[in-house]
Amino acid sequence: MSKTLWPYAEAERILEIYPDAAPFRLETGYGPSGAPHIGTFAEVARTTWVAMALSDLRASRMAPGAEKDKAWEIVVFSDDMDGLRKVPLNMPADLGEHLGKPLCDIPDPFGCHASYAHHNNALLCGMLDRYGFRYTFKASHDQYRGGVFDDGLRIILEKVEEVRALIIPTMKEANRQEWSPFFPICETCGRIYSTRVTGYHADRGTLTYVCDTATGGRPGCGRAAEMPVTGGRVKVGWKVDWALRWFTLGVHYEMYGKDLIESAELSRKIVKVLGGRPPVDSFYEMFLDETGSKISKSVGKGLTVDTWLTYAPRESMLLFLIKNPRKAKKLSWDVVARTVDEYIDLISKHYEGERPDPFRDELEFVWPDPPGRSPYEYPVSYTLLFTVMANIGIADPDLIAERVWNYRGRIPESDAFLQQLLRHAAAYYRDRVEPGKRPAEVPPEHLPLILKYAEFLDVERTPEEIQHQSFLIPREAGLEPGPFFKTLYGVLSGQEQGPRLGPFVRMIGQPRVAARLREAASSRSSLQNASGP
Predict the structure, then answer these.
(1) Contact yes or no for 117/58 (Cβ under 8 A)
(2) Where in 93-222 does DSSP place strands (E)?
């Protein structure tokens, strides 16, 4: 693998600070307020790439013949003692009666796991297991209630004013006086956000609290009591909790979203107060939905791993994720199609021995063990396949395969990858393209042009001739080619853009395209005549 890629830069940073760590412990975090989405998958994938680079670098510096170092562990940590603040859009509304309770104490609305958090944790682990990740899962409630965090919690209690001194300056003035790093879980109502700490007793390892704060539309139950800070009776707030994990688990590296930069800086300071050493850390830009908003589990929107993999090969998603994590990525359905085509182009170049483009090195991470020969022997794009389906109006892989055969020659029996692409393209067309198809609008100035184009196609042409003519016809009429292309794609596929026209027209068949163009021109002319002068 090329050692110029960003995972190697991250690995070098880790080795500089922790040269003798064994094993290296890398952490990723997950909030099970909602089902895991592609952002969750991405964080684990990116952390895994850093671990792979770390192992590779250390192995390269070992004596010749020494066994390759695989001493790394990725801890996938679920913050399932956090309280439920709002009900995700894709979850049952009756979860609302449990607002303010720890996620691990809320009944599973689907009735298949011990709690709502257990349900979402299972979704996370199932996703990671399906795609072969190497990781250690840790749930917050196990660490708190199993006593793993007890020593760190006692230290926080002893140094509570030092911790407060770090956090309070970052808060609004009105919230400073009563802020506490501890969130007691009320012994009566079971809520974590309705309690307020009223005193600390480090000599007894306890605190006192009162449950008098409204949460989830409900007032506090009024309980006042003293309780130990150990044994899972309390949880510490987010920034302190992060530091507690780093301190207790001995984390050497963690990535996080750009929105957590300030939180990470405070957590680094807090872990030093606890007597620990902060990990090497790094931020990544966020995933955005079609509107440009951050994708969030708690909102319940966004492209999931499973939906991507319904429509495209796994390697295409990994290729999308391996690119510069410091650049925000907008997730929309056309991104899926573009990335599949990019992946097809890369594997073609890999086997043809062409000069690599900037992402050739990334291919080595997403496809570490390529087969001895190309798994894909046809120069046909993914976009072309589902656009042909749009023209024919049928999501039938076998029918499209026949069109491919007519254009390129019969598919070899061994080309399983193309068969897979056909299945993916059929699903993509059926679910993502067909529902959005609209009747084509043919501008009046394009009527004679599409008829001229149809006449040109009455004689058999090469893809290059067809492509050239699609530019030449509008230019001879004194028009720009762009709008004419938009009209052609609208007539042929119900979309504003598509694959390269020459191969597209040849694959559909020139007679079929010519007939479709004449039909569109006739419909437009009839509409004009009906509307009158």
Answers:
(1) no
(2) 136-139, 182-184, 195-201, 206-211
Q: Are strands 253-257 and 280-284 parallel, antiparallel or unpaired?
A: parallel
Q: How is the beta sheet containing 206-211 ordered, strand by strand?
A: 195-201, 206-211, 224-228
Q: What is the DSSP letter of 504?
A: H
Task: Please tell me whether residue 208 adopts helix, strand or coil conformation.
Answer: strand
Q: At what angle do helices 382-392 and 510-531 cross, to 10 degrees?
A: 50
pLDDT score recorded for residue 484 = 94
Q: What is the mean pLDDT of each run of 10 residues along the chain (533 residues)?
A: 82 94 94 87 95 89 61 96 88 89 95 95 94 95 98 98 96 92 97 96 98 90 98 96 98 95 97 98 85 58 78 92 88 86 87 64 79 77 86 82 76 80 91 78 91 96 94 96 92 83 87 91 60 45
Tokens 């620990």 sit at which residue?
276
**DSSP of 246-281, one letter per residue?**
HHHHT--EEEEEGGGHHHHHHHHHHHHHTT--PPEE
Segment (H or E) for 493: helix 481-493
Tokens of 405: 């055969």
Task: Quote helix, strand, coil % in the chain, to nearest 5.
Answer: 50, 10, 35
What is the pTM for the complete model shown?
A: 0.84
pLDDT value at residue 290: 67
Helices H, strands E: what count in the chain? Answer: 21, 12
Q: Which long-range contacts (CB under 8 A, 24 or more apart) does 271-277 make?
A: 271/243, 271/246, 271/247, 273/159, 273/162, 273/163, 273/166, 273/243, 274/152, 274/155, 274/156, 274/159, 274/243, 274/244, 274/247, 275/155, 275/247, 276/243, 276/246, 276/247
Which distant-in-sequence residues (6+ apart) come within 8 Å of 86 by Cβ? Answer: 99, 298
Q: Residue 176 corresponds to which tokens in the numbers above? A: 């400073």
Whole-angstrom distance, CA of residue 44 vs CA of residue 47? 5
Q: What pLDDT, on the 0 to 100 scale, is given for residue 302?
A: 58
How many angstroms separate the CA atoms of 188 and 52, rounded?
48
* 471, 473, 478, 481: CA torsion to nearest 10: -30
| E strand map for 301-456 | 329-330
The residues that bridge with 284 in the sheet, in sequence order, are 257
DSSP state of 439: P
- Could you tell me how many residues make up the chain? 533
CA 103 to chain centre: 23
Per the CB < 8 A criterion, the answer to whether 59 and 71 are in contact is no
Q: What is the C-alpha to C-alpha distance for residues 105 and 461, in angstroms, rounded to an integer?
A: 69
Q: What gap in Å lies between CA 346 and CA 355, rounded to an integer?
A: 11
Between vectors from CA 428 to CA 423 and to CA 429, what angle results, nearest 5°?
100
Query: Under DSSP, is residue 400 helix (H, G, I), strand (E, B) or coil?
Result: helix
- Separation of alpha carbons 448 and 201, rounded Å: 88
Cα–Cα distance for residue pair 203/154, rounded to 1 Å: 10
Structure token pair of residue 415:
């080309």
